[in-house]
Amino acid sequence: MTVLEQGFDNPASPTPGAKAHSHGAGVVPEASRAERRTSFSVADFPVPTGREEEWKFSPLRDLAPLFEDAAAGSPTVSVSAPDGVEHRTGTPAEIDAGTAFVPGDRAAAAGWASTTEAHLVSVPAELELDAPVVVTLRGSADELTSGHVVIEAGHHARGLVVLAHQGSGRHRGNVEVRTGDGAEITVVSLQEWEPDAVQVAQHDVRVGRDATVKHIAVSLGGKAVRLSVNVTYAGPGGSATVLGVYFADAAQHLEHRQFIDHEAPNCTSYVEYKGALQGDSAHAVWIGDVLIRAAAEGTETYELNRNLVLTDGARADSVPNLEIETGEIVGAGHASATGRFDDEQLFYLQARGIPEDEARRLVVRGFFADIVDKIGVPEISERLMATIEAELAAGSAPAATPIASTFEEN
């Protein structure tokens, strides 16, 4: 892959002994992320115009209905869970939502205000799940929906929760992940919408003391999808891994934002997103923000984004930002790169008798292989690679069988 933009640090490992500083690859935030606005009131967030730093990459024409402070329906939700997992529904107040979540933009606040049916999925303390919890949310064409899902894991609980987004319509989706001390939880968010669907989502993850949380975003469907993942730490020793895979087709916008807020000492975070783009006006956006506060001594963090542009007319915007308020850390770094197929790689494969289409498939598969292996969920990894290859072969045609069906079949 030919590198068009490279971040500041070696992607192989964090930089030991990094000094206090703040910088970004291409764009420096207007203010510290510590001062970012959060509120449950819609009125506290003006309607975006596109001139704001946080909205300048987003397709506001498509997202405009999601900014309206108006009533909304509820998506159709089904929950499949192994024995011992609690599932309750009610208003956000009735399921104690909002203790680890606060809206960070107008769409999230409007979604909170208009949610009438929220869902709580609770994994009790000490329980180790032998099968995943699967929460399927389905939207309807021409309908505006709002929803809130709380995923709660008691101390030393272990398990996998899959959120599958399917169907059509316009959806404001808030997700709140709360983990107890020593818990080990993986949350997978699948965006497998129909081609006309629009989604803005905010996922807030609170990592408990000595807990391990893995958040995985897989975005393949939808006309415009914007997913923000915010991570905070409830105590020392927490570890967060935030991974993402996306494939943008013609006229499709896929946007992923992460904010890792290190306010507790001796915690770690690792962020890696990889995406491919093909077709005219295919657009991918990745914004990675990491804040290491003065009290967060002993922090180790790294963030990485890679984009593979397969055709002319596609565009990827990638902005890593790192803000450090203390020099007493283990390491911190970031990197970003966007590039096209390497002609030498294709020539090498074709010179050995491999047809061009097969050579392109092998290059794409190799590009994604490392991050897919990090997912650590074989059912998802295998179906994801098959889906990516189907996307590559079909262009902008519908993707293969939804990944979520893997769990329905088992």
Automatic annotation (TrEMBL):
Pfam families: SUFBD_core. It comes from the Bacteria. InterPro entries: Fe-S_cluster_assembly_SufBD, SUF_FeS_clus_asmbl_SufBD_core, SUF_FeS_clus_asmbl_SufBD_sf, SUF_FeS_clus_asmbl_SufD. Residues 1-35 are annotated as: Disordered. Residues 141-367 form the SUF system FeS cluster assembly SufBD core domain. Belongs to the iron-sulfur cluster assembly SufBD family. This is Fe-S cluster assembly protein SufD. It comes from Kineococcus gynurae.
